[in-house]
Amino acid sequence: MKFTPDRQTYIRSNTRLAAGAMVIGVLALWLMGDPHVWTGAIGGLAAIALRGWYLMDEALAEEWELADGRLTCANGRIIALAEIEKVRTMWGLVQVVTKSGDKYLLKNMPDPERVASAIDAARR
């Protein structure tokens, strides 16, 4: 079973990140007493939009595979299913924690609960 990132999930997560960056930019300028606080919103939006555009191809190429008693990571690392201690979901992410404490993120998953359930079912 392969898990591939979703473009819409990637865009949605970057939109949330941009909104947060805009708020932080405005607040930072407001706290510093700058009369042009609106530029913080533009700067936050521009920074995250540029970052999102630049990293999109790389982020959407991170494919994971669950087969033969192991989870093969996007970077080629192999995690034995017997070594997985926890699987958690959060905002389009699936976090896999091993018994040794290593943590891996399956990012931009369109249905993180389905991915986590599949990994949990395979490791039992």
Poorly predicted tracts of residues: none
Strand content: 15-25%
How many domain modules?
Answer: 2
Order of helices and strands: EHHEEEEEEH
User: What gap, in angstroms, lies between the N and C termini?
Assistant: 16 Å
Shape: elongated
Adjacency order of strands in the biggest sheet = 1-2-3-4
Overall mean pLDDT stands at 94
Number of E-type strands: 7
Sheet/helix structural class: alpha+beta
What is the number of helices?
3
Q: What percent of the residues sit in helical stretches (DSSP H or I)?
A: 40-55%
Largest sheet features: 4 strands, antiparallel
Please tell me how large the radius of gyration is: 18 Å
Organism: Mesobacterium hydrothermale
Protein name: PH domain-containing protein
Transmembrane segments: 15-32, 38-56
Keywords: Membrane, Transmembrane, Transmembrane helix
Explain how this protein is built:
- Keywords: Membrane, Transmembrane, Transmembrane helix.
- It comes from Mesobacterium hydrothermale.
- This is PH domain-containing protein.
- The protein has two domains: 59 residues; 60 residues, no CATH class.
- The longest helix is centred in the N-terminal third of the chain and has 25 residues.
- The strands form two sheets. A four-stranded antiparallel beta sheet has the order 1-2-3-4, covered by helices on one side.
- It is an alpha+beta fold.
- Helix 1 packs antiparallel against helix 2.
- The model has no long low-confidence stretch (mean pLDDT 94).
- The chain starts with a strand and ends with a helix.
